[in-house]
Amino acid sequence: MRAYHLDRNWATNCFHSKGFTLGWKKPNDYHRIVRVDGDLLAIDNEFTTPQSIKVYDIRRRTLQCVIAPVESTIAPVAGGIKFTDGVIVVPCLGGVACAFDARTGKLLQKIDLHLGSRYMLLFFDGELVITYECAANKRENNEKFCDIYVSCVKDGQLQRTLTVDLTDGVKVCYYNVDYRDKMVAAVYNDDYIRVWDARSGECLHQLKCPGEESKVKLGDNVIVGFSKAFDMEVCDIIIWSQDTGECQKVIREVPSHRYVRPYAYVLNNLIIYYDQISGPGDHFYFMYVYNLRKESGMEKVHHCGDPRRNETKSVYIVLEEPEYRCEKAWPSAVCNATPNGLVRLFDAGTNHIIWIDDIRMILIDNKKHKLRVHHYW
User: Fold this and answer.
1) What class is the 31-165 domain?
2) Which InterPro entries did the record assign (predicted)?
3) How far is CA 63 from CA 31, 54, 178, in A?
4) pLDDT tens digits for 16-58?
């Protein structure tokens, strides 16, 4: 009954709304990294000085605590801070990360990431912290970017290092690591994807995926590789079984912009792939959706603006509205990633949506520094 009413409320855009003031002295527009865990919302205002993370209680509409990293400033990482099971992991300059209690702001643990670079990729699932040092540009790619580190958040200790044999000149490609359900996948410059068990350190699969711009994503019992050459305008999508490593399907020659790595993720049995095409003053996106449960081809969705999604059930995309191309705020639509495909629910106007999960949508007014939460349950 709860699921029925919740789905009906989303389909009809029926919600009750609560709002509160954030308390920022200066607007930072879209430079915020937002994470939500339960009723707590953490905002990393990237360019504030001194740098800090504010944690709000959504239900009570109050500021819960302010977290100031104890090690220099927050490092620029793909995806920023991580927030799971009441713990916020903050990557800092100097090759360390700090784990904080999100309700009190208390420092729980300092984790040595064994990294020297200021560019890193970080995953956190409430138990394990997965870190990988990445190059600022392709010219920096060398053997130091081969290792992926698995640490425990409780004691801050390194548990294992996932590495490869360097005798053949194997290197991790720039920003090509994914983590999900205790599994780590990475693309290497020898045209192979390697998949590990993060707990044991065992290499489970080596999967052929050629191309300098190749990418990997993990889904529900599938490994999806995006095979892309640097100067090609097409991308092959390869789907393997996580259990056996057997190739299940190859989707040939999906259009892709030359010199650009594919943007893609796997959500609720859907492969959502989008390609950026630069226009005068704008970035245009052609999005493709492939349903893993069906044998049909990829469905093309034409739109403008940057698609945004969350990590649970919903994704929202920005639809093409030519008359708005000179405006900063793009009209948006909320869509549900269902087992049967991407289903459009309702128009969201020009509001800046910063979070969507199963029960709520959070919007922000950067001019008034106000947060508005739409509760669908």
Assistant:
1) mainly beta
2) Quinoprotein_ADH-like_sf, WD40/YVTN_repeat-like_dom_sf
3) 20, 7, 33
4) 998 888 766 554 544 467 889 999 999 876 544 446 788 999 8
